[in-house]
Amino acid sequence: DSGVTQTPKHLITATGQRVTLRCSPRSGDLSVYWYQQSLDQGLQFLIQYYNGEERAKGNILERFSAQQFPDLHSELNLSSLELGDSALYFCASSVAGGPGGTDTQYFGPGTRLTVL
Amino acid sequence: AQKVTQAQTEISVVEKEDVTLDCVYETRDTTYYLFWYKQPPSGELVFLIRRNSFDEQNEISGRYSWNFQKSTSSFNFTITASQVVDSAVYFCALSEYSGGGADGLTFGKGTHLIIQP
After folding, report:
1. What is the secondary structure of A56-114 as a DSSP string?
2. Nearest CA to CA, how far is B104 from chain A (Å)?
3. What tens digit of pLDDT does each residue of B68-102 get?
C-alpha cells in the first residue's frame, strides 16, 4: 500500500458526460501528479500540482482539468467524454516536487474509467 | 526530447531462471533520474528503484539488481532466481532535471514478464 488513495475504483459512463476522479496524497506529500494509462498510448503524464498550484502540464486534453485543494487532495475533471478516454487514471504523490522530478512518485491504485 | 525504450514486449521464463529486462533512454540533460516500477495483475504501480545520473553504482536488493551504464544509456533490471510472484509488467521511467520543466515521468512501453511454474 503506497498510502495514496483514489476514488472511485471503477467508473462507467456514457459519451458526452463529465466525471470527477479524486486523489488523496500520502501524508506529508505536497505534490500530486495525474497519469493516464491506455493500451495505445501507454502511461502518459497529464498534469502536476504542488501545494495547490499547477506546476507542470503534460499531454492533457483541453477537455480535462484538475485542481488541488487546501487539504492537498486533488480532483481530475474529465468532460465531454469520448470512447477513447477509456483508460486507467493514476494519481501519484511526492514529498516536494522540485525541478526535474527529483522526488520519487508513489502511485495510487488507479481509477478505471469506461466510456460507453 | 526524452524517451525510454523497452524493446522486450514480453518475456517468458521458467521459475528459478534469471531474467534481465532492458531499458534504454534518451535525454539531453546531464542531470536526470531513472526509475523502475512494477505493475502486477492487480493493476497498481509499485515503486522499485530510483537512480540519479551521477550515481553509476550497481544496486542489489535481494533477488533484484540494477545495472546503470551511462556510456550506453541503459538501466537494466535483473531478477535472480525468478518466482511466480514476479510475474508483472515492469516499467522503466525517466525524469529530467530541466530546472522548471515538466516533472512528470516519461515511461517506456513496459515489459510483460511471465514466470511459469
Report:
1. EE-S--TTEEEEE-TTS-EEEEE-S--GGG-EEEEEEEES---TT--SPPEE---EEEE
2. 6
3. 999 999 999 999 999 999 999 999 999 887 644 45
Q: How many helices (H) and strands (E) does chain A have?
A: 0, 11
Q: Is B66 exposed, middle or buried (0-12, 13-18, 19+ CB in 10 A)?
A: buried
Residues β-bridged to residue A33: A48, A92
Give the three cell numbers for residue B30.
Answer: 546531464
Residue A51 backbone phi and psi in degrees, to 5 = 50, 45
The answer to whether B102 contacts A57, with C-beta atoms less than 8 Å apart, is: yes
Please state the φ and ψ torsions of residue A15, each to the nearest 5 degrees: -60, 145
Q: Which amino acid is at B48?
A: L
Distance CA A89, CA A91 (A): 7
Are B105 and B93 in contact by the 8 Å Cβ rule? The answer is yes
* Closest B-chain CA to A34: B104
Please list the alpha-helical segments (H only) found in B11-66.
none
A2/B33 CB distance under 8 A? no
Asked if residue A48 lies in contact with residue B102, where contact means CB atoms within 8 angstroms, the answer is yes
Q: What is the pLDDT of residues A1-33, one digit of tens each?
A: 889 999 999 999 999 999 999 999 999 999 999
